[in-house]
Amino acid sequence: MSVDTATVRRVARLARIAVSDEDVATMEGELNAILGFVEQLREVDVTGIAPMTSVIPMQMKKRQDAVTDGRKSDDIVANAPATEDHYFLVPKVVE
């Protein structure tokens, strides 16, 4: 696949990147080089190879999924100028 000048301008517009006329030719060459490398990667035979997330097999550390109130309600309302039953009191703004 080859990228032309119109495609570079369209990609730049979609990405909301300002590209000057001088930079379009440079970006065209860079994008064609990237796509050429991707084409090289497509030639590699990966049948039978499992996808991996790390070079070292390891288990993800998981914590117990428990719902709590955070035990911080007293600390949170301590900073409020006015509270009542662990709720913030605010002035009425709508009549």
Automatic annotation (TrEMBL):
The keyword Transferase applies. It catalyses: L-aspartyl-tRNA(Asn) + L-glutamine + ATP + H2O = L-asparaginyl-tRNA(Asn) + L-glutamate + ADP + phosphate + 2 H(+); L-glutamyl-tRNA(Gln) + L-glutamine + ATP + H2O = L-glutaminyl-tRNA(Gln) + L-glutamate + ADP + phosphate + H(+). The gene is gatC. It holds the Pfam family GatC. Belongs to the GatC family. SUPFAM superfamilies: Glu-tRNAGln amidotransferase C subunit. GO terms for molecular function: asparaginyl-tRNA synthase (glutamine-hydrolyzing) activity; ATP binding; glutaminyl-tRNA synthase (glutamine-hydrolyzing) activity; transferase activity. Allows the formation of correctly charged Asn-tRNA(Asn) or Gln-tRNA(Gln) through the transamidation of misacylated Asp-tRNA(Asn) or Glu-tRNA(Gln) in organisms which lack either or both of asparaginyl-tRNA or glutaminyl-tRNA synthetases. The reaction takes place in the presence of glutamine and ATP through an activated phospho-Asp-tRNA(Asn) or phospho-Glu-tRNA(Gln). GO terms for biological process: glutaminyl-tRNAGln biosynthesis via transamidation; regulation of translational fidelity; translation. Heterotrimer of A, B and C subunits. Keywords: ATP-binding, Ligase, Nucleotide-binding, Protein biosynthesis, Transferase. This is Aspartyl/glutamyl-tRNA(Asn/Gln) amidotransferase subunit C. The lineage of its organism: Bacteria, Pseudomonadati, Pseudomonadota, Alphaproteobacteria, Hyphomicrobiales. InterPro entries: Asp/Glu-ADT_sf_sub_c, GatC. It comes from Aureimonas ureilytica. Its EC number is 6.3.5.-.
